[in-house]
Structure formats: structure tokens, C-alpha cells
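Why does residue order matter? Because the sequence determines the fold. Keep that principle in mind as you read this record.
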Amino acid sequence: MVRAGRAGVAAGPTLAVVAREAGVSVPTASKVVNGREDVAPETRRRVTEALDRLGYVRRPRFDGTRALRMVDLVVHSLENSWSGAVLHGVEEAAYDAGLEVVVSAGPSRRRGGRPERGWLDRLVTRGSSGVLFGLAEPTASQYAWLEQHRIPFVLIDPVLEPPPGVVSVGAANWQGGVTATEHLLSLGHERIAVVTGQRRAQEGDARLAGYRSALAAAQVRDRAEYVRHAGADPAAARRHTLELLDLPEPPTAVFVCSDALAPGVYEALAARGLRVPDDVSVVGFDDLPEARWLGPALTTVRQPLAEMAATALRLLVRMMDGDRPEGTRTELSTRLVERASTAPPPAAPGGTRRAPARAAG
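Structure:
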């Protein structure tokens, strides 16, 4: 149970309450909280379970020397260029705001259905004033814990639809899907397939909806067999592309809803002896560095990851200062970056290359 503290701020149970719940002395409970080793394993287990059950918060000790506020940036992984772009945006915005940033990866593991105690405790112990999540989806327990302890947080480009009231920043994914598809339509393509991520992913569903909207506006048939879900796996994108090429009417263009999947599409086309863009055009989404490294360089829809991260940091600062944003979802615009992976469809029977059928909208 949480009781009201001074100025209406939620306060967790005292150490004495935790000790009574665990059936130990206050000094013993204090040893467990502070990571001391001279506690029997069974006693440590009882105290830890009481900490979890009661929602005890380890309070930071300040020595008066800290001049900067601190925020946590939690990303799904530090081993990809997406995280690099987000880090760059947060770093610049944090410098301007006079904030320190602690970066960690993937806190969403759970033990017995409860939030991971270690990460949540460290968050409070080091005195973080807020949290940014980048593709690291908090669990329901972690959402509740953060709300309970009045720690503001913002999601950057969430994969899943956030719970009501949760503040997030993302890209205009639907419009980006429209833009990518209209680009291919403007070159004369009508057999346009799409390789997207996991089912029911927020951004992937929006990009797929934009693709379908652009086809409908151009009165081009939306073929169910042209839609493939590859998750986040380039190998799955390769497999699905091979399946698309085996259709009676294979596509002449592929819209890949993530640059990270594009290498798999390229590999499948090369395995069949097809050239990009002479035989099949490819459009991506994100404008990650990988898009420029592919051969030929990938035409893609740029989502402004660094700007999204900076916007999320500025929203978090407002929330830390007690100002709740008017809306829960902020979207930044996308734009097409044309490179060398798109061209008109291959030559039609008779030897003439198909001319572009319509202009981009």
C-alpha cells in the first residue's frame, strides 16, 4: 500500500514496515536493501519478496554537490544504428537542457511476473527524474510502478500501441507508407509487394495502411498475396521475397517497411539472378546508414530519429517540471530520399520499357 506523503507526493512504505512484513529486524532489512553480504539466503529471500510486495523505493542520498538533473534512456539494444541515431538526438537535447543521461539496454525482463527490481531500484537510487524508452517496451508492471512513484516517462517510436494516456513520439508512418508507394506508382509500377515487420506492430500497421491507401487512390488492386510479415529478421525477409518471386505474377517492386529488412530482399533477388532496380525496384523505410551501404544504395523514406529523440527529451523535461503535454502522441514528418534502387518496371513484351503511369502525389 502507498500512503500520501508531504505535498501530495506518493511515499512508499518505510523500512520498518518491510522488516515487520518479512519478520526480521530493521538493521537486517537495511543490510538487504544496501546489498550487504552478511545475510542468510533464506532471510534475503523473505526481505526481497517483501520489498517487491510492498513496492519499497530505495531513496537516493544526496550530498548537495549534484547540480544536474538525471534521466534514463532505455533502448532495446545498443548494437544497431537505430539506437545510435536516438542517442545522438537525446545527447544534444540533454546538453541544451543541462541534463545528465544514463543509458541502459532492455530492462523489460521479469521475474515471476513482477518488474525487474534491480533496474527499477537503481533508477531511484541514482536520482533519475524521468525515463525515455526507445523500442524497449515497458511491461504492465513497470508502467504501474513508474506511475505509482510519479516518475514521468516518454516512449520513442513504440512498437506496440501504448496504454491510454502514455506520452510517445514517433514518425508519420501512414504518410510515409503513402509516399513510398506513390513513388513506385509514379514510375509505372502496379505489381507492388510489401514486406513489413511483425503483425499488430503500431508503426508497421500504419505503413501498411499507407501503402494500401495509395494503391486505392491510384485504383490499383491490393493483392493479399503481395503482403508479407517478416518480423525483424532479414532472413525471413529473404524467404518471403523468394516466395513473392515464385507467384504466377511476381511483383516488379517491393516496399520494405524497414531498412533493416532490405538486405534480405536484396539477397533473394540476387539469388534469382535479378538486378535492382533493372528487374525489381526496392523502397525502404527509416533511412538508416545501412540504406547507403547497400548496392545499389536504397531509396527510402526518412524518419527523423534524432529529431524524434530530441523531441521526446524536451517533452520529458516539461513533464518533470509538472507540465502535462496536451496530446499523448507527437508525430514528426517523413520524406522520401531517392537513391539508386528504383526505376520504371522492366521492359514490357515487345521490347519497350514501361513508361511512368502517373505523377507522385
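Residues 115 and 141 are 6 Å apart (CA to CA).
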